[in-house]
Amino acid sequence: MSKPLVLIIDDDKDYLELLHEALEEEFDVKCAQNLDEAEALARDFTRFDIALVDECIGDDRGSDWIKAKVEDNYVASSFVLYSGLANDEAILKGLECGADDFLAKPISLLALNSKLHKLINYQEKITTFESELTSKERVINVSMAQASKYGSCMQLTSRLNQCFTLEKIRDEIFSFLYSMKLQGCLAFYPLNKDPIYFSSEKGFCSPVEIDVMKLLKIKPRLHRFGTRAIFNHSLASLLILHLEEGAIDTDIYIDALASVIECIGARIAFIAYQESLVEVQSEIQKAVFTTKKMIEISKHHQQEVMNEIVQSMGASFHVLDMTMEQEEYLTDLVHNALKKHSQDDINFLEIGQLLDNALASVDNLKELNQEVEEIEDDEDELF
Question: Does residue 235 contact residue 268 with C-beta atoms inside 8 Å?
């Protein structure tokens, strides 16, 4: 299997050689000291898997070059921008120019190798996601585009209230963004689980998009910066890219999506509650079955003891030379023991009945959940 093809652009010859030596064992590495050399290599090799680009290349800016190549869909499948600056502005510049990841100098060679492998894996995921979209022939509801923008947002809220999985929430949000010709990233922060990140354009978020989402998670419920806006909830974040400044549509999206993010958070909380309820149902059912089994074992042991008492008493009547009073006394003992055993049987029956009722209640609750999910599926078929 051929090695992934990597292009490195840096005007520092020593640093270029250092990166080449660090990567050449696992990657097919080509180097350029300026953008002209990079363009020549691009013509020779058609398309690289990854282009690793320094921000400062002589008088040129690597981020500007990356932006132009991303727009033309040319040179590389993924771009990595690196710079001596590691502040928020530098990271945001990486996102804005279209880079898939951002690195700060000095670069850890082990970390660089790991990041490049992750990018190759990221490209494979995107390819798989695009194949799934093609095979399923996903159809976007074009009727939403004919409705007013605000009305569409309200319809989105209604549909989100019928979502019972995180995947369906994601699909509803992205269908809305497609119909509105918007692009964005969605993050879920489910309780006691790792965050999940999705891109409406590529399916999965790139490393730099994830970094930006993490960076902006601490911002207020609504935070705008340039042509972008992020809507935050403790359980979710929605990042919208490329909003038109001063447009009426933009104001509508801002107002409506500020409410939508609350709806998303509420649905995630409901899904978590529903999952917990199912777990509780399972534990209750397990406990009831175990208790019933223990009762059956106890009744079996009790019956064995009673049989042994009766047999021993009966045998004693034949081998002992007893008076009438002694025989009557022993007979009363047997009768009292059998009477107590009969009462215990009644108690066991009552306990068993209660446990059967508990199991029936669990089954009814499961059937109710099933009916709710079937109603959801029926509603999806209507559209």
Answer: yes
